[in-house]
Structures are given as structure tokens and as C-alpha cells.
Amino acid sequence: MVYRALKEARERLIGNERAQYSKLREYLAELLKSNPGRHTILDVTPIPQSLPLFGKLYICLEACKRGFKAGCRKLIGLDGCFLKGYFGGQLLSAVDQDANNHFYVIAYAVVDSETKES
Question: Listing from the earlier edge strand, what are the strands of the sheet with 103-111?
Fold first, then answer.
């Protein structure tokens, strides 16, 4: 009973996960307006009479590309972590170090699992 009440309260405050995934195209359209040189990939599986099923998302912003070329070491590190929400998956990121030894994110992706296809 308490679990259902907490879940309903959370959905009222921030919305449910399915609704958030349905807004990804709008988010990518806003990225195009604010960052024209960016590179994105959104892969979804269409389902008749329902919202499409999320597959994977890749984002690399133009400013991150330029920053990597201008001031980072030429060695890229790849890292990933598991997402613990309702849908699961993995968050993968390509990072580097700048001249101050700080981590610099070049690109990131949300995928089902870490495979050659993703």
C-alpha cells in the first residue's frame, strides 16, 4: 500500500519513465537548435498503437568535440555503469583528461547492454 502511494506521488512530481523516454525526440530537436554541429543517434522500435520502444541513444556535442581536439590528450577512456531504474540498461561514456588532469566527457550513450552493436 505504501509502495503504491509513493510510486503515485513520484509520478505526479516528475512523471513516469515511459513519458520521459517519449520526450527524447524533443530533447534532440532542442540540441540541434542550440548546438548545430552535434552528432546524435536515437534508435527506437516502433510498436503499433503504442509508444515506440527505446533502443539506444548516443550524443556527442560539437563543443565537446572541439574541446577534445584542442586541449586533451590523444587517449580516450571508455567507462560504463548500470542504470537501476525500471527500464535498466547501461550508461556508457567516452572520457579523456585535459591539461589540468580533469576528466573531460567527449560523448555518452544509453544502451541496453554493452555489445559491438551498441
Answer: 39-45, 53-60, 103-111, 90-97, 77-82
Domain count, the chain: 1
Residue whose C-alpha is closest to residue 56's, from 94, 90, 95 = 90
- Cα–Cα dist 90/103, whole Å: 20
Residue 116 lies in a domain: no
> What pLDDT, on a 0 to 100 scale, did the predictor assign at position 13?
66
3-state secondary structure of 16: coil
C-alpha grid cell for residue 7? 510510486
Q: Tell me the residue range of the domain where 41 lies.
A: 2-111
Q: pLDDT class for 91, splitting at 50, 70, 90?
A: very high
What's the length of the chain? 118
* CA 32 vs CA 12, 21, 38: distances in Å: 29, 18, 7
Please indicate, yes or no, if residue 71 is contained in any of the structural domains: yes
